[in-house]
Amino acid sequence: MKLIVAEHDGKSLSTATLSLVNAARQSSIDGEITLLILGHGITEIAHEAARYADRVLIADHPEFTYDPAVWSTAAAQIARQLTQEGQPALVLISGGRQGREYAPRIAALLDAPYLEDIIALTYKKGWEAQRFVYLGRVLHTLQTDAPLVITSIKSGAFSAAEPLKNIGGIRPAGLEPIRRRVRMSDIQSEQRGKVALSDAKIVVTGGRGLGSADKFEHLVGGLAEVLGAGIGATRGAVHAGWRPYAEQIGQTGKTVEPAVYIALGASGAVQHMSGANKSDCIIAINKDPHAPIFELADYSVVGDVTEVVPALIEVLKEKGC
Amino acid sequence: MNTLVIVRQVPDPAAPLHLEGLQMQEERLNFVMDGLDEYALETALRLRETGQLHGEIITIGMGNARQEETLRLALALGADRAIHIRHNTYADAMDLSRVIARIAHEENVSLILTGGSQSDSDSQALGAATAARLGWSQVTWVTTLNLNEQTLTGRHSTEQGNEAFALELPAVITTQPVLDEPRYPTLPNIIKARKKEFRTEELDSNRYVTLLHAEPVIKERQKQNLTGQPAEIATQLATILREKIL
What we know:
The structure holds two protein chains of two kinds.
Chain A: E1 2-5, H1 15-25, E2 33-39, H2 43-49, E3 55-60, H3 68-82, E4 89-94, H4 97-110, E5 114-123, E6 127-133, E7 138-144, E8 148-153, E9 169-172, E10 183-189, E11 202-206, H5 213-227, E12 230-233, H6 235-239, E13 260-264, H7 270-273, E14 281-286, H8 293-296, E15 299-302, H9 305-319
Parallel strand pairs in A: 1-2, 1-4, 2-3, 3-9, 4-8, 5-8, 11-12, 11-13, 13-14, 14-15
Antiparallel strand pairs in A: 5-6, 6-7
Helix pairs in contact in A: 3-4, 5-9
Chain B: E1 2-6, E2 9-11, E3 19-20, E4 23-24, E5 31-33, H1 35-49, E6 57-63, H2 67-77, E7 81-86, H3 93-106, E8 109-115, H4 125-134, E9 137-148, E10 151-157, E11 161-168, E12 171-175, H5 187-193, E13 197-202, E14 209-216, E15 224-225, H6 230-245
Parallel strand pairs in B: 1-6, 1-8, 6-7, 7-13, 8-12, 9-12
Antiparallel strand pairs in B: 2-5, 3-4, 9-10, 10-11
Helix pairs in contact in B: 2-5, 3-4
């Protein structure tokens, strides 16, 4: 049994959900893949989802819009129905902020182990998984004998699955409405950059060293524009009110793993770099020669961002990139 | 009704790590209160100082004998009593949430605060798992928090933005460094803290997950310095970028 809880925007499945399908297919245990879709007005997604799973269960009702308690209760109910005593079984949740707030609840409800934000998973005699700890600086290998495990999968650890020719069956999940206790309102989306951070091959990040919101916009925004890069910000830049929290990279923000990470005026605090230290290549520009970022960078420029970055934008515009 | 603040001791994130086998070489490290937990404690203290929160603020920490330092610090900062759950071997959020939930019951707790993520386990599960074991709701990554009688209101961060929330106690709240800056302890308060109640319990050995292996994963970097006039540096950078992307 492999149960995936789908994340979606109401219209289509998220890329992270498609990578959960791949993780499930590669999970080295037999059994059908079930996709559970919770939300309201989601019939369209069910048809898309049927190309990725043996079975799609759908709970389409305002009661099932996202809430960590509601989604975890629903997923635990379905997992209980599908799990056969003693057989290896897997619940897969995406390792974004949302997934990581309801996945542990499923584990608590089922009294099962929770393997959090994992990058690898195998089943031999029991489950074995790998995950980063100590702000991304140490890799742990964990093992459990429990047959049923709840996992959240680190974003980017598995590629998105391809759709199958066989189309799975779609049926109602048959869940009773679940009471929600938290009332949410005034939902504000903060995404400002044109390129989503999760998909970006290049990320340009700015820190407090840029000096002002205007310079951030001009230098980080300008460089990201010519490179087609995603925009990131340090906690300091977000805290100063220059950039939205949705762009924050690090322990309290997002984790990215681009081909190139360009840090402008960022000191390179461990909390920030835990969200970027797996990048293939790191380029740092900072006027402070003692900034810790230079210990973590492939290419270092000790210099003034207001001189180097406009020059770089100019070269890239002239010759293209 | 009482408030429980989970504070944990972690290696100072600003210093290099020294791994030996499955654990850290403790004598080579500095340990500090986990940064995001500091905001949890500060939030509880401020809610009480502004008359929104009543009852005791109990602080709970899990870990080996050294964890006591961090709990004593929490007492010096203003917590009323401390509970130390001792364990020396690997335990994850699911193990720890079990004992925290039991203590929340015993201590008549209606609000639990802790950091949104832990900088040793890189886990965001402790608050959520504790809430689920108690059958409570949770709000994670809070940026503002107010309490009026039994109603908590505020804003919190989501994947793509932020939203306002309202819920009735009991609840678990996780914090981040956007809330009010944590205070420092004063010498008189450090001395007073020595007289506050400090209780120790052992964590049960009932675990699901075993730690098999630990290894450092610091990526080797080229560490190449680019020098020259801005225009020269720009040309070098452009070449590097073209190579990396194509």
